[in-house]
Amino acid sequence: MKAENKKIIAARWVRKARDDELNIRSILKHRDGAPSGVCFLSQQMAEKYLKGLN
User: Fold this and answer.
1) Which residues fall within 8 angstroms of residue 20, CB to CB, at 6 or more apart?
2) Domain-wise residue ranges, the chain
3) What is the distance between the alpha carbons of residues 25 and 9, in angstroms, rounded to a whole number?
4) What is the pTM of this model?
């Protein structure tokens, strides 16, 4: 895979991870979600950042 394509794919994963972070912050700020949802999204966010490193 070309280096340019890898950068594009990595940027997409980072963008998705940041979306998860926004959802986590909203849940915590408004206290409108289950704590297990925050844990799940945190785990998903970490996985997406790791995928972006590949």
Assistant:
1) 41, 42, 44, 45, 48
2) 3-53
3) 25
4) 0.87
Spell out the per-residue pLDDT of the chain, length 54, in tens.
Answer: 788 899 999 999 999 999 999 999 999 999 988 899 999 999 999 999 999 998
Which residue from 54, 40, 45, 44 is spatially nearest to 18, judged by alpha carbons?
Answer: 45
**Euclidean distance between CA atoms 7 and 24, whole angstroms:** 26
CB-neighbour burial class of residue 4 (10 A; exposed 0-12, middle 13-18, buried 19+): exposed
Residue matched to tokens 């790791």: 50
